[in-house]
From TrEMBL:
<protein>
    <submittedName>
        <fullName>Glutamyl-or glutaminyl-tRNA synthetase</fullName>
    </submittedName>
</protein>
<feature type="region of interest" description="Disordered">
    <location>
        <begin position="251"/>
        <end position="278"/>
    </location>
</feature>
<feature type="compositionally biased region" description="Basic and acidic residues">
    <location>
        <begin position="253"/>
        <end position="263"/>
    </location>
</feature>
<dbReference type="GO" id="GO:0004818">
    <property type="term" value="F:glutamate-tRNA ligase activity"/>
</dbReference>
<dbReference type="InterPro" id="IPR000924">
    <property type="entry name" value="Glu/Gln-tRNA-synth"/>
</dbReference>
<dbReference type="GO" id="GO:0006424">
    <property type="term" value="P:glutamyl-tRNA aminoacylation"/>
</dbReference>
<keyword id="KW-0030">Aminoacyl-tRNA synthetase</keyword>
<dbReference type="InterPro" id="IPR014729">
    <property type="entry name" value="Rossmann-like_a/b/a_fold"/>
</dbReference>
<keyword id="KW-0479">Metal-binding</keyword>
<dbReference type="GO" id="GO:0005524">
    <property type="term" value="F:ATP binding"/>
</dbReference>
<dbReference type="InterPro" id="IPR020058">
    <property type="entry name" value="Glu/Gln-tRNA-synth_Ib_cat-dom"/>
</dbReference>
<keyword id="KW-0436">Ligase</keyword>
<dbReference type="InterPro" id="IPR049940">
    <property type="entry name" value="GluQ/Sye"/>
</dbReference>
<dbReference type="GO" id="GO:0005829">
    <property type="term" value="C:cytosol"/>
</dbReference>
<keyword id="KW-0547">Nucleotide-binding</keyword>
<keyword id="KW-0862">Zinc</keyword>
<keyword id="KW-0648">Protein biosynthesis</keyword>
Amino acid sequence: MTKPVFRFAPSPNGRLHLGHAYSALLNADFAHRFGGRFLLRIEDIDITRCRPEFEAAIYDDLAWLGLHWEAPVRRQSEHFADYRAAFQRLKGRGVVYPCFCTRKDIAETIACREAESGEAWPRDPDLAPLYPGTCRALQAGEAERRIAAGEPHAWRLDMAALDTLAPDPLLFRRFDRDGQEEVVTAHPRRWGDAVIVRKEIPTSYHLSVVVDDALQGITHVVRGQDLEAATDLHVLLQTALDLPTPRYHHHGLLRDPEGDKLAKSRRSKSLAELRAEGATPQDLWRRLGFGRQPTPST
Ligand code: GLU
């Protein structure tokens, strides 16, 4: 039997905080308990926000925590060709369309539709409002003309077209801390026509993560509950791209005393700051509920 493969996949757009430490330790702990492998992936497709010093700090913080990972580390910024190939595959299947809308265009269209219908636009509290479909309905030839004229555009998934490719119900496996598995249903429709290739970057988080999990042979994805909705979309993308679907575990999020989830953007205390205040790795493992230092088997 092949070994289970786990990964921790941070983005180098800030210093790691306690929530990242928890996710990394949990992955390593699973790998240890399941006799699996532990990989690290640097998710740096957003080259405007990611910085080399943050990447260096990730290696430093994780090593300080006592983690070991396999080399080489996959850095997404070195693999745009893989994401382009996956996108071409989706395009070949007719499940994407170009979108020229700005955020403002979308907000205005939604406001108009709400005014016309007198009803609130459907929205999932965790997600951006559903795309109203403006660019799905362009006249034949118009999209090609606007692309040829150099107009900035993203690419969106055509949920209705994807539906025809995906089994109904769309199922995947979830596992708990003890490795007990259950089959659950994914609900990717709640995303509407999600952006799959961004205007300013020739891929997206969703596309790259799905491609990389497959290329790295990830069998078990362990990540926070804030990405639970993303899993629904990822399972659909895996189906559309003929990629295997890993098993998923979504862990609870660490919160600050006000109840907000820890976040780089909220200036939650970084591991570096905790270290400077005298915290030891052992303090953090204990504080995060790990009795011993996870030492993944190699
Ligand atoms: N790069 C993502 C983050 O830092 C995690 C992606 C994932 O685990 O799938 O939040």
